[in-house]
Amino acid sequence: MKRTTLLVALLWIGGSGAAGAEPTPNLPPEEIVARVLRANPSVQAANSQIDVEEANRRRLESGPYEWNVRFGSQLRRVRPAIGQDERLNEWNAALERPVRLPGKSAVDTELGAAGVSLAETARGDALHETSRNLLKSWFLWLRETATAAQWADQVSLLDQHSKATVRRQQLGDAARLEAVQSEAALAQAEAQLAQARVRKSTAAEDLRRRYPGLPLIEPASIAEPPPLTGSEKEWIDAILEHSHELGMARGEVRQAQLVAGRSGRDRLPDPSFGVHMSRERGGEEHVVGAYISIPLPGDARRATADATLAQAAAAGRREAATMQKITAEAAALYQSASAALTSWQASRSAADRLGRAAEMTARSYQLGEGTLSELLAARRLANEAQLAARLLQLEALELRYRLLLDTHRLWDLD
Question: Domains, the chain, ranges and CATH?
Answer without folding.
Answer: 2-66+101-268+300-406 (1.20.1600.10)
